[in-house]
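Bench notes, afternoon.
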Amino acid sequence: MGQTVVINKVVEMGDLLLIDTDRSFTGQDGSALTPDSPGDAVPGKLAGRLFELDPGIDYVYVLQNAVTVRRPGGWDEASQTAALSVVEGFLLFY
């Protein structure tokens, strides 16, 4: 079993949720992911969990330790808390 991902900072900008963490999920190349093509690598598995969590999420971009999640219509407190929970617990049972 892994460790919890520590979230250093969260910024909400309209439809985007920017999540800065203490763990790197990719190398220097970022990964742009959609529900139609989540991918099988680590970023894709994280994006897949976010897409399953909330059908309103339509895009995830992962670059090193930063995760950007787009949810058209914006973020309410419950959806933001749920997305952060997925990121925090992602490496526990990867």
